[in-house]
Amino acid sequence: MARVVTIGTKKGGVAKSATATNVAAVIALSGHSTLLVDIDQQADATTGLGFDPYQLDVTINDLFADPNRDPMTAILETAIENLHILPAHPSLSKTETGMGIQRADPGAPDPMTSLRAILGPLGDRYDFIIIDTPPSLNYMTRNALAAADELLIIASAGAHTENGVKATIEAYEQTKRDYNPSLMLRGILVTRMKRTNASTAVLDALMKDYPDLVLRQVIMESTAVDEATQLQEPVVTYDPNNGASLGYIKVAKMIMGGRTNA
Ligand SMILES: Nc1ncnc2c1ncn2[C@@H]1O[C@H](COP(=O)(O)OP(=O)(O)OP(=O)(O)O)[C@@H](O)[C@H]1O
Ligand SMILES: [Mg+2]
In the predicted model, what is the mean pLDDT of residues 139-167? Predict the structure, then answer.
């Protein structure tokens, strides 16, 4: 059965998509059959692997629209061996609105488990399923929590980080209680770490408040990540010896080994 890992946090621009893409790439390159699932209407993970969502015939949005549709009809092979993607589309915003309407209707089926139903038949096909989520604790992200075995929270080493982490932990606890009792929290990965006092202060504050959760492995800020993003390729293949790449390789190994801080 696939191990399903949701990458998420409420805050935007903190490297969720970079983390999901690079961790998925490392796991795939290690020989595991891996699926990257993009449920963000911005479709950054989809674009990041070289696909234009507007040019795709079928995306995950079609699977939300038609629960009987075979999910394999939306899945694409990527340039990276063993890595497939279930791409996103901007029209996911309409699905998000529809889920809100559905939730308010007591006679309608609960929309919180739609993604779990989509991924169900894929559990036997993949070793790992990595889900990239939008910068919001919306229905899409809560679907990703309901569908996952574990959550990796992303926190950038910048201002206003703590509130996003706190709200994400609350959403995790709520989803675990109401939908997914076996959901676990792998930890908090600090990204975009700079060698500045401001960055160190954010890391120190997170370590003080969440000593058991903050991963000791951080991801350094590096222009190579931006360069790779623009070239629509993960930094781990663009520049494998870069500091950020080495960090992502260690985080991916932690996830593959089911470990935290070891
Ligand atoms: N370690 C890093 N060093 C330098 N730039 C980075 C790093 N990680 C991410 N970035 C850059 O920061 C920007 C945001 O990253 P990314 O898209 O992964 O964040 P996100 O959390 O998924 O954003 P959103 O909330 O919009 O989905 C991108 O331009 C990306 O290239
Ligand atoms: Mg993103």
Answer: 95
18 lines ligand 1 (CB under 6 A): yes
204: left (phi over 0), alpha (psi -120 to 50) or beta: alpha
* Distance from C-alpha of 70 to C-alpha of 122, rounded to nearest angstrom: 10
- Split at pLDDT 50, 70, 90, the class of 260 is confident
Q: Give pTM, 2 decimals.
A: 0.98
Q: How confident is the model at residue 262 (pLDDT cuts 50, 70, 90)?
A: low
Angle between helices 139-147 and 161-178 (to 10 degrees): 60
Please state the domain extents for the chain: 3-256
Task: Enter the tokens of residue 102.
Answer: 């559905």
Q: Kindly report the protein residue whose alpha carbon is nearest to atom 11 of ligand 1.
A: 226
Strands laid side by side in the 83-86 sheet: 76-77, 83-86, 34-38, 128-132, 3-8, 150-156, 184-191
Please tell me the residue having the least CA distance from ligand 1 atom 15: 15
Its CATH architecture, for the domain 3-256, is 3-Layer(aba) Sandwich (3.40)
